[in-house]
Amino acid sequence: MFDLVAFIPRAVGQGIPLMCGSTGETITQKSGNLNLGIPGVMYVGAISGVIGAFYYEKSIPEPGTLNPFLAITIPLLSCLLGSLLMGLLYCFLTVSLRANQNVTGLAMTTFGVGFGNFFGGSLIKISGADIPSIALSRTSLCFSKSLPFANNLGWFGKIFLSYGFLAYVAIILSFVASFIIKRTRPGLHLRAVGESPTTADAAGINVIAYKYIATCVGCMIAGLGGLYYVMDYACGVWSNDAFGDRGWLAIALVIFTIWRPNVGVFASIFFGGLYILYLYLPTGMDHMEYKELYKMIPYVVTLIVLVITSMRNKRENQPPESLGLPYFREER
Amino acid sequence: MVKYLGNVLFGHFPNFFSEETSLEAKVAAVQMRNVTKTFGSVIANDKVDLDIYKGEILALLGENGSGKTTLMNMLSGIYFPDDGQIFINGKEVVIASPKDAFSLGIGMVHQHFKLVDVLSAAENIILGLPGKLDLKAATMKIMEICQKYGFEVDPEQKIYNMSVSQKQTVEIVKVLYRGADILILDEPTAVLTPQETEKLFNVLRKMREDGKAIVIITHKMHEVESLSDRVAVLRRGAYVGDMMTKDTNAQEMTDMMVGRSVSLNIERPDPVDPHKRIAVRGLTVRSLDGILKLDDVSFDAYSGEILGIAGISGCGQKELLEAIAGLQQAEAGSISYVSDDGRKEELLGKDPLKIQEMGVTLSFVPEDRLGMGLVGNMDLADNMMLRSFRKGSSMFTDRKAPEKLASKVVEELDVVTPGISTPVRRLSGGNVQKVLVGREIASAPKVLLTAYAVRGLDINSSYTIYDLINQQKKKGVAVIFVGEDLDVLLEISDKILVLCGGRVSGIVDGRTADKNQIGLMMTTVGGEENGK
Q: Is B117 near chain A, with CB under 8 Å?
């Protein structure tokens, strides 16, 4: 029978990186920037965290115990820094230099993946491992530590309390992002910037600042998704290209959730479930090919959702009106 | 920087000016001195001096592209002047952003509304202000302003659900909410019905009594005469002069704008040998959302005649023209084209290409010039080619003919452009319209459909366009002219069809009808009998 108690924590684990990515991208898109570089940003966030953790672990030889505070802070800060730099690069190119957003985003994804694989490969060389991966199990233990009493609470503990702190951070960030966008004045201004920068500008809102801040914050949140994936989900094991296409799925989720991070919390866990569903569906030995079909489910669902969302033509559910367009005040 | 220092050093100048003006019992709210702004090599404003007084409505006049909007945009912080000084209440100021303008009490209602469609009225009004997001308090304050000046605004209504006049009201409330005492309105009446315009003017008069300084940019002379106290004229970016409205008239103002004497009469030659060209019967059109746009519309359009179409905007004018042009599906009815030999051909259900292949030359000047009529990023010659690219038998396009046509249009219609290889979007509204009309009439049409042909055009360009339309009429073209200015419709049309909510409210003779009658017919089907 389908083991729901085992399935849900796996689905959540898969969902958290998507949640970070889509929350970050939603904030970015609300400012009118279509950042297709999110997969690259998440890659850079992950490898930056790995680099930080690698050198901290290296400084304390094997039997020694890590300081849990530093073991978390160092990778976290390097991850945030790495993704922030990606965000700044994107903003500089698209906002300050008004380059085409699609091209810039795609280039950044290519760059981010290459950057991750290059430094991942270098670290593997330095560590001298036989297998093409780095295991940062001591750091990972700090990241994936769940509440001590979670295991005593049966199925409830398993489903709700068995995750590392980054999972809760991601969920809280998503709800906070929703609240800010919907209920606060900066959120109102952000929406105005994404819908109509000329209007926002005429109303005295600093369009450039909003675009920069939203995009950089969005990138940092997305970067956390990469960090969570390596440190918690993958138990601290970095291997090149392991992150896969989760970044693209995160961007698809933004449309799926019609630009609502709070919906994104549930949608990303749902997608996380779809992503690994094939492992839980009984196929039998003689029909292994079905598994490959099941792997398609998240993408098929995305396609269907795209069709459905484009059919509902309620104005509130449309993308920000100036999404993807550069803004220049004195344009004639 | 040197200039700026200079301004600071000679800061006593403004006091001198304000002393002088106070002798005339007028207090200058704004003084612009030597203001210059260039875009690339184009000088939009050249050393403009302009005073705006409190408790006065100033009409700022000028042809299209004479720099009125640019000048006002420098007051509202959208553009920054290259040179010159601006004094507000006698003090020199630097307006670097719209925020600075707000804090100086300057508010501008732009020609193209600056509103976010998916937000509510209240959200739009408080946009950009600091502090906690408190929609309840904002709503209270909005209602207060509305009561004071007699506006009707539902603070919770989304902008995309609003009519243009409602949107404009929101814009004005937005400006007042910020406590503006210097109010700039850029062509506020371009999209309003006569009734809405009168309502707006009453509000503006109330604000004038309140001591606010008001600047209005408009091309409609009768509005200038009925509303403003003083007019200031710009010509090609330079300040020409000002005069009191009561001492001048439309002819003098127009001559001043254009720089030479212009005739302000629309001729209406009698139709020569009119015969039926387009017969519309029982036309019913529904929009994609299932809303009835045209309901059982029947009429005939004759060759050599101008059929004016009046109606509040959005009453089916667009659908009617597009149905004839083959761009709009209809639910029921027929549109037949009657050729010279009396043969009837059905146009409904055919696309523009098929209509063209049938040998029906139909020209369409749509409402949305740069959306449907021309391609903004293409140059004049390429835009001419949009009509002719199918001609010729080789696989290469013929570029010579369109280039020749473009040069001809530029020359004959006085299009102001650096050349025929300039992207159309860089031209001002009037010139864009001339290019479009020029191209459409170049194909020697049998039927000419025009929608709001002079919207946003200055008076001189407008009369050029009227003249062009009249020439077509004399050539025996059946003209269907959708207009918004009833005075013009009454002057130019042989017959006027009045639409009301997608239904034909009545067809009247342009020579005998009067404005009130048509106004009534626009709001109630049949006009008088139901209107009373």
A: yes
The whole-angstrom separation of Cα B502 and Cα B285 is 9
Contact between B306 and B336 under an 8 Å Cβ cutoff? The reply is: no
Q: Three-state DSSP class for B496?
A: strand
Q: How far is A216 from chain B (nearest CA, A)?
A: 21
- Per DSSP, helices labelled H in B326-444 are 352-357, 380-388, 400-412, 429-442
In B, which residues are within 8 Å of A185 by CB distance? 129-133
Q: Do the domain assignments include residue B127? A: no
Note whether A119 and A47 are within 8 A (CB): yes
Is the CB of B98 inside 8 Å of chain A's CB atoms? yes
Phi, psi of B326 (to 5 degrees): 85, 20
Residue at B186: amino acid letter = D
**Pairing between strand B292-302 and B332-338?**
unpaired
Helices (H), B161-261: 164-177, 194-209, 221-227, 250-258
CB pairs under 8 A between A and B: 72
Q: Which of A185, A199, A204 lies closest to B116 in CB terms?
A: A199
Structural domain tally of chain B? 2
Give the CATH number for residue B216. Answer: 3.40.50.300
Q: Are residues B429 and B352 in the same domain?
A: yes
Query: What's the rounded Cα separation, in Å, for the pair B238 and B46?
Result: 5
**What is the C-alpha separation between B186 and B69, in angstroms, rounded?**
7
Q: Which of A184, A196, A204 sits opposite B116 (nearest CB)?
A: A196
Q: What does the pLDDT read at residue B6? A: 42
State how far residue A80 is from chain B, nearest Cα, in angstroms.
29
pLDDT band at A1 (very low <50, low <70, confident <90, very high): low
Measured between beta carbons, the chain A residues lying within 8 angstroms of B114 are 196, 198-199, 202-203
* B242, B343: one domain: no
Say what the alpha-carbon torsion angle B129, B133, B134, B137 is, to the nearest 10 degrees: 0
ipTM, 2 dp: 0.85
Q: Are B441 and B503 in the same domain?
A: yes
Residue B515 lies in a domain: yes
- Whether residue B149 lies inside any domain: the answer is no
Question: A199-213: buried (b, 16+ CB within 10 Å) or exposed (e) per residue?
Answer: bbbbbbbbbbebbbb
Judge: B158–A184 Cβ closer than 8 Å, yes or no: no
> Tens of pLDDT along A180-205?
999 999 999 999 999 999 999 888 89
Q: What is the mean pLDDT of residues B102-117?
A: 89
Distance (Å, whole) CA B9 – CA A35: 49
Return the SS3 of B220. coil
Question: What's residue A313's pLDDT?
Answer: 67
Is the distance from CB of B224 to CB of B61 less than 8 angstroms? Answer: yes
Confidence at B25, pLDDT banded by 50, 70, 90: low
pLDDT tens digit string along A91-138? Answer: 999 999 999 999 999 999 999 999 999 999 899 888 887 788 888 888
Of A195, A203, A330, the CB nearest to B79: A330
A 10 A CB-CB count for A324 gives: 17
Domain that holds residue B58: 2-105+181-258
Identify whether B322 is part of a domain: yes
Count CB-CB contacts under 10 A for residue B456.
Answer: 19
Tell me, yes or no, if B156 comes closer than 8 A to chain A by beta carbon.
no
Candidate ranges A200-209, A217-226, A232-241, B12-21; pick with highest mean pLDDT: A217-226
Last residue of a domain, one of B229, B258, B287: B258
What is the rounded distance in angstroms from the CA atom of residue B233 to the CA atom of residue A288? 82
Q: Tell me which residues of chain A have a C-beta less than 8 Å from any C-beta of chain B.
A: 183-185, 187-189, 191-192, 195-196, 198-205, 315-316, 318, 321, 329-330, 332
Give the C-alpha separation, B446 to B304, whole Å.
Answer: 9
